[in-house]
């Protein structure tokens, strides 16, 4: 079942590029991950089959793998456990199965906690121009996709629209305070190191990842939102890794490649509305997401899998 937009009998409190957020009462939220896909900050008209299920179930799987490192917002990703808590969702079981998470509500820190184990993306672009990351100098002589030891904690501000902006740790301290900054950096590094070991044992390099955190009413800091998915992380195949070039990735690369060709040919200006996606691009993108899930979890994606 494809889902471009969810429509549930709950008060919707937010709609992002991919997720719809509903008030589930009693300090809880219901996060529903649709099959919407965005690239270059533009949401495509065509949904990607299975994408919402991959992001939801992979996040739930990672929450289980990382629970020793601290609490998360996840209560359940099992539709048959969620429905007794929210009975009005019973007629919508097929819609939420595999793509909904019942979560604890938090006050979200206005920071994207990014950790980079390899020099790629916006970090590589800045380094290539100025030898810095968020204005801080990096060692000379690094190549694109170079491994960074130790990994670099690189916070960013959360953008409502457009790209997040890299900031320094000093700027992060000014925004949320010294103690919270220290706790978020420590937790982010711990999550990344654990995830890197797990993924490498499955033939995947986690080049970087973006995490979010919130504080609950008891003052505890919880890992929230999506966790180590192809949308929030760069996953590279380990067996083909070589520094000095861009790496293939387990994400929406087929979609980005197609859009780059459309821009280069003058058929798209990079703004909404986007060009229609050919069926082969939709299919290839869907397969990338499912492959990442299969390699990491060791199981094929189903709409009934829970972790």
Your description of this structure?
It contains 8 helices and 17 strands. Helix 1 runs parallel beside helix 8 (279-297) and helix 7 packs antiparallel against helix 8. It has 307 residues and is of the alpha+beta class. It folds into 2 domains: 12-106 and 250-269 and 289-297, 2-Layer Sandwich (Phosphorylase Kinase, domain 1), CATH 3.30.200; 107-240, ATP-grasp fold, B domain (D-amino Acid Aminotransferase, Chain A, domain 1). The mean pLDDT is 94. It starts with 11 loop residues before the first strand and ends in a 10-residue tail after the last helix. The protein has helices spanning 51-66, 79-85, 93-96, 121-130, 169-176, 178-200, 253-264, 279-297, and strands at residues 12-15, 19-23, 28-33, 38-39, 42-43, 74-76, 100-104, 107-108, 111-118, 132-133, 136-137, 147-153, 156-157, 165-166, 204-215, 221-224, 233-237. Strand 10 and strand 11 (136-137) form a beta hairpin. The relative contact order is 0.17. The radius of gyration is 19 Å and the shape is globular. The strands form 4 sheets. Strands 8, 9, 12, 13, 14, 15, 16 and 17 form an 8-stranded antiparallel sheet that branches. Helix content is 32%, strand content 24%.
Give the count of structural domains: 2
Give the ordered list of helices and strands: EEEEEHEHHEEEHEEEEEHHEEEHH
Uncertain runs with pLDDT below 50, 5 residues or more? none
Corresponding CATH architecture of the largest domain: 2-Layer Sandwich
- Radius of gyration, in angstroms, nearest whole number: 19 Å
Shape: globular
Distance between the termini: 21 Å
Q: Class by helix and strand content?
A: alpha+beta
Q: Remind me, CATH topology of the largest domain?
A: D-amino Acid Aminotransferase, Chain A, domain 1
Q: How many strand elements?
A: 17
